[in-house]
Design brief:
170 residues; 16% helix; five-stranded parallel sheet; FAD/NAD(P)-binding domain; three-stranded antiparallel sheet
Length: 170
């Protein structure tokens, strides 16, 4: 049983509560990411595909969304570098990606910094196997590392799993 009180002081009793607070995109939290947002750093390919067309683009992420975005960029004459600490994409997509000459996959890597003054000029990437850092000249960075639930509001009322998602029908 839940009791809800509105700002005006009205109280309601209910048997169920629907929490629809949505999700937010995960960010890299690296230097240059915020500064260069919408100046080469993007989280939504459909918005920025025309801007990226024909350029060198780093796609950060190892899941299906990142890989599908990478394939779409490659079809639009982009040179693509996929950077991921852990490859989780479907094998069929991975196979398709590895056949493309203008698509390079750097697995076991992470982005350390996005560089540029007025727009993205490149990224520094760390190899997680040996710690070596390498600079890659790119004009765009597409961050495709998933979403996090906005579950803070409900965290005192219900159980959350390790991904901070509300546990339903336990």
């Amino acid at each position: 049983m839940f009791w809800l009180t509105t700002v005006s002081g009205k109280t309601y009793r209910c048997h169920a509560l629907i929490v629809a607070t949505g999700m937010q995109r995960r960010t890299l939290n690296v230097p240059g990411e915020k500064k260069l947002l919408r100046r080469g750093v993007s989280y939504v390919l459909s918005q920025d595909l025309p801007i990226f067309a024909g350029k060198s683009v780093a796609v950060v992420g190892g899941g299906n969304s990142a890989l599908q975005s990478s394939l779409e960029l490659a079809k639009n004459k982009c040179r693509v570098i996929v950077i991921t600490p852990l490859w989780t994409a479907d094998p069929s997509l991975s196979e398709e990606a590895r056949k493309l000459p203008d698509l390079v996959v750097l697995d076991s890597h992470e982005v350390v910094e996005i560089k540029g003054e007025d727009e993205v000029e490149g990224i520094t990437v760390r190899n997680l196997r040996n710690g070596r850092e390498t600079f890659y000249r790119v004009s765009g960075v597409l961050v495709a590392i998933g979403h996090s639930p906005n579950s803070f509001l409900a965290s005192q009322l219900v159980d959350l799993n390790e991904k901070k998602e509300i546990v339903v029908n336990p």
